[in-house]
Amino acid sequence: MAQRVSADRPLRLVVFDCDGTLVDSQGIIVRTMERVFDAAGLPRPDANAVRRVVGLSLPEAIAHLLPDLDAPDHHELAGHYKRAFADMRAAGGDADESLYPGIAALLAALDDAGYLMGVATGKSSRGLALTLDRYGLARYFITLQTADLHPSKPHPAMLRTAIAEAGAEPEQTVLIGDTRYDMAMARSAGAHGLGVTWGYHPGDELIEAGARGLADRAADVPALVAGLID
């Protein structure tokens, strides 16, 4: 990764969410959740309800879907989900996740402009590594923060850690994500939240949660980022 940081300006950090922001993973997430609920003898969750919890850690997401169950049940189902997800991912096909249009070019443009970059995601470390390796994106990121290392979004721990690892400051950091959990996390960490409208929560919710702007296309992101921290 190129790191052309001028000595007379502060470090500028751009942190991305993954699911719903870098990759469209709703297909495999919904199918995996359906498989887990089927195996447990539970009624299948509504697909839109599943999309609404993407970005949370697994136990937290399942707690939202099954609020009447206890925490040990949520964690047990989360374990089943991880195994089912790995099986479905290995199978590939139309259940797999895909890179959103323009993301590869966006990361290259931000890198060329001298921004530091990271990821803060509800994925596990292993899941994130597989996604980044699949699309050759790992080289762009200097900090990777995942759900198995931190409390679930919107808790600010993973973003605060990303900022600290990069040596940046919150006011020079933009968190790019598609859910209100991302925007709330950015606000709690003192960073700027930039919403993307190609993911799983509508733009008006992102603005309500604290987004400083909305990008409708990956190509829109560099100018919006520059407007916030340049």
Mean pLDDT: 92
Q: In CATH terms, what is the fold-level topology of the largest domain?
A: Rossmann fold
CATH homology superfamily name of the largest domain: HAD superfamily/HAD-like
Distance between the termini: 20 Å
Q: Helix and strand string, N-terminal first?
A: EEHHHHEHEHEHEHEHEH
Q: Give the overall form.
A: globular
Share of helical residues: 40-55%
- Class by helix and strand content? alpha/beta
Quickly name the level 1 CATH class of the largest domain: Alpha Beta
Overview of the molecule:
The chain has 230 residues and is α/β, with parallel strands linked by helices. It has 2 domains: 13-24 and 97-229, HAD superfamily/HAD-like (Rossmann fold, 3-Layer(aba) Sandwich); 26-95, DNA polymerase, domain 1. Helices cover 46% and strands 12% of the residues. It is built from 10 helices and 8 strands. It has helices spanning 26-39, 47-53, 58-65, 71-91, 103-112, 125-135, 157-166, 180-189, 203-208, 221-229, and strands at residues 13-16, 23-24, 98-99, 116-120, 143-145, 173-177, 192-196, 214-215. A 6-stranded parallel β-sheet has the order 5-4-1-6-7-8, sandwiched between helices. A two-stranded antiparallel sheet has the order 2-3. Helix 1 (26-39) crosses helix 4 and helix 3 packs across helix 4 (71-91). It starts with 12 loop residues before the first strand and ends with a helix.
